[in-house]
Automatic annotation (TrEMBL):
This is UDP-glucose 4-epimerase. It comes from Inmirania thermothiophila. The keyword NAD applies. Its EC number is 5.1.3.2. GO terms for biological process: galactose catabolic process via UDP-galactose, Leloir pathway. Pathway: Carbohydrate metabolism; galactose metabolism. It comes from the Bacteria. GO terms for molecular function: UDP-glucose 4-epimerase activity. Pfam families: Epimerase. Residues 6-254 form the NAD-dependent epimerase/dehydratase domain.
Length: 330
């Protein structure tokens, strides 16, 4: 069967740009729709970039029609948990309402396949800090709620037979293209590994450890960090699954192992070769203590085989990219 063109929303952002690169390496036809609010045009190394809002229904319908798009990969979103606590309606507008508008356009134009960037934040505080795909969803911050509502809309639309979807619930994504072509360039980043690398290179004065009294082995927050290149591969496999006529799926994307904030700091110090200036700070609003994937299902169903499952590898690639940024790369 002929491969249709893929619309990648948010393809100029951190994760989206890595997936666009992987699609390009496979010779897929790609159109990126991104408003460049946190993404960068020069991170799009393949396909055509259209600058615009994913919530603009008329624009999306026109793109779907004129490019003959049969698959949408939807990354565009606001992604910062504490910001969602401070400004929840922004998250319901930019994540939930924009996704509703996108889905409406997809249904109207006959898009058949949809790959959705969801999040471990839909689980809230799962028992024991570990979640499989059947763990009840109970988000504890508006970011997680905004994404869960999007999941529900997608599920319900798929139930009408309009399209099939793979919903990928990412745990904590980190690291950069091992070949150093693109990386994480988010301005005013808040993600731990990115911030720690900026501190290592002197771009920030210190690293705040948000919470040292959690019920975790060393008192700091524990997360399951997954390399962005392995995550990009999961997207290609999701696409192949849908093209082969596979059923709609919801899958965790993680390695099934947790690292504390202190363990991440130690890994950055190993890669950097010097201690980081660290300050203990209060808990950050909206943060769960521990979030680790049970991630067997994606291996079984998509035959996903991660190749970068190692915290030191992840951190080394993030630090290498940060050095390039410091030298003026994108
Ligand atoms: N980074 C993580 O650890 C993580 C974990 C779980 C889920 N996710 C999800 O993955 C997706 C990508 O996240 P990221 O880390 O690459 O973030 P990012 O901010 O780097 O990428 C988001 C991209 O979407 C664009 N965008 C935002 N709003 C838009 C709009 N209304 N119209 C068009 N473009 C818009 C931005 O300019 C940016 O390029 C998001 O949906 C996020 O919720 C990320
Ligand atoms: O400067 C910092 C930044 C983070 N942390 C801690 O590090 C851990 C990880 O935080 P962060 O890297 O900000 O990621 P999360 O808040 O876990 O959220 C990310 O991971 C979620 C999936 O688990 C995604 O959905 C979100 O988009 C993404 O922001 C948490 O315990 C934070 O409190 C610090 O101590 N200091």
């Amino acid at each position: 069967m002929a491969r249709g063109t893929i619309l990648v929303t948010g393809g100029a952002g951190y994760i989206g740009s890595h997936v666009v690169l992987a699609l390009g390496e496979r010779g897929e036809r790609v159109v990126v729709l991104d408003d460049l609010s946190t993404g960068r045009a020069d991170a799009v190394l393949h396909g055509e970039l259209v600058v615009g809002d994913v919530g603009d229904g008329a624009l999306v319908r026109r793109l779907l029609r004129t490019h003959g798009i049969d698959t949408v990969m939807h990354f565009a979103a606001r992604t910062v948990v504490p910001e969602s606590v401070a400004d929840p309606l922004k998250y319901y507008r930019e994540n939930t309402c924009a996704t509703r508008s996108l889905l409406e356009a997809c249904a109207a134009q006959g898009v058949r396949h949809f790959v959705f960037s969801s999040t471990a934040a839909v689980y809230g505080v799962p028992e024991g800090g570990i979640a499989d795909e059947d763990t009840p969803t109970a988000p504890i911050n508006p970011y997680g709620s905004s994404k869960l509502m999007s999941e529900w809309m997608l599920r319900d639309l798929a139930a009408t037979g309009a399209l099939r979807h793979v919903t990928l619930r990412y745990f904590n994504v980190a690291g950069c293209d091992p070949a150093g072509r693109i990386g994480q360039s988010t301005p005013e980043a808040t993600l731990l590994i990115k911030v720690a690398c900026e501190v290592a290179l002197g771009r920030r004065p210190e690293l705040a450890v948000f919470g040292t009294d959690y019920p975790t082995p060393d008192g700091t927050g524990v997360r399951d960090y997954i390399h962005v290149t392995d995550l990009a591969d999961a997207h290609l496999r999701a696409l192949d699954h849908l093209r082969a006529g596979g059923a709609s799926l919801t899958l965790n994307c993680g390695y099934g192992r947790g690292y504390s904030v202190r363990e991440v700091i130690a890994a950055v110090e190993r890669a950097h070769g010097a201690p980081l200036p660290v300050r203990e700070a209060p808990r950050r609003p909206g943060d769960p203590p521990m979030l680790i994937a049970r991630a067997e299902r994606i291996r079984e169903v998509l035959d996903w085989r991660p190749r970068h499952d190692d915290l030191d590898t992840i951190v080394a690639s993030a630090l290498a990219w940060e050095r390039r940024l410091a030298q003026g790369a994108r």
